[in-house]
Amino acid sequence: MNEIKGTEEGLRAQIEDLKRQLEEQKRRAGGGHAAQPAGPSGRTLVVLAFFVLALVAGGFVLGYLPRQRRELVLAAEAKAGSRSVPVVNVATVTRSASKASLVLPGNIQAITEAPVLARASGYIRQRYVDIGDRVKQHQVLAEIEAPELYQQIKQARAAIDQANSTVEQSQAALRQGQTNEELARVTAVRWQNLLAKGVVSRQDNDTYQAQYQAQQASVQALEKAVAAARSNAAAAEANLARLNELLGYLTVRAPFAGVITVRNVDVGALVTEGNTLLYRIAQADRLRTYLNTPQADADAVRTGLQATLEIPDLPGRKFVGTVSRTANALDPATRTLLVEVQVPNPTGVLLPGMYAQVDLAVPRRDPPLMIPADTLVVRSDGPQVALVAADGVVHFTRIRLGRDMGDRLEVLSGLEEGQHLVVNPSDAIREGARVKSALAQEKPSPGPRS
User: Fold this and answer.
1) DSSP line for 319-376
2) Maximum Cα interatomic distance, the chain, rounded to a whole number of Å
3) First vs last C-alpha separation in the chain
4) What span, in angstroms and rounded, lies between the C-alpha atoms of 301 and 290?
5) What is the pLDDT of residues 93-148, one digit of tens each?
6) For residues 109 and 352, what is the distance between their CA atoms, to the nearest angstrom?
């Protein structure tokens, strides 16, 4: 186009130049010059005029007509586009996973934790462990010095000797009583025979018979005295055994392998039997976490269910555990089920007292339908979705929602699996409108969480 314009301008300049030459020749001829130069012929002028017209016609054909044609094409395309069916992105209604992810807060505790108290009164002579030390079972933790206990042991041994002497005395008295009983028996038998012969009186015989019975009663009393003396001796021996047992408690040992979490005494401290707390020990190689499961999910939590622990202070790390037991009863105050989850802790990363988020893989008997959150339309008559039928016609359908999972929603009723829903429906999407469906790229979403 620019080339054509340049050619036209050049031709116009030549024509103007020729006109000036003709006028100059005419002036010279009118001034009386004898010789008049010959100008361009009429044929030349016609050729030049025809050439100019051809250039103008070519510019019109090459410039204006294509432009007009393009404008007509664009107008036709715009008119056809206004009459075409709009294309919308749709998402498919899917079924949620058969296992739901139930996330609950929990408190981590040691699987076994016990206080270590003093079983003998005295002074701490030596302390071998402190807070944070790992100990083995029966390892010596401290030693107690109790001089009074040794004196009590001596006294108990003396009491045993005294009780044994009493037993011997009772046995000697019993033997003497048995001898007297035998003598009284022989005498009573003889007097009974003499009475039968009429040699002695009945009164004398009755006297010896009564003496025999008295000796029998005395022997029985002596036997009871011997039994009582033996019981006293056994009590003295038991007391000595108790003191010897307390002597063993002067060496304080760990009841099980674990970590010392509390140290309450130091060397020279006075401890009282059964009252003074020496240490607190916790077994941390396996921990337990207590959860309060809502009533709606209580029936799905069973012993042996897998659980995953996440600690906010340890991002990116997960610890796998197992549901070890449940309370099998709801707390009437909170309507929750107490659940215990045990987690192995061989490296000691987890500490008793930590806060954790516990993810339970709860099985679901009837998994609900799931839809993307951007397909929901909230109106005055309730939540709805724009459902695209098989013939491409849009129908707005009311639904009943379940739990909100963030980017996805549970649908309890109103839809069927496999149906297509309009994503982010605009105001142009109306009831009964015909559209073309383009399946949207769905993001993989994690399992339902609560």
Assistant:
1) EEEEEEEEEEEEETTTTEEEEEEEEE-TT--S-TT-EEEEEEEEE-SSPPEEEEGGGE
2) 229
3) 70
4) 13
5) 888 776 777 888 999 999 888 999 988 889 999 999 999 899 999 999 999 998 88
6) 5
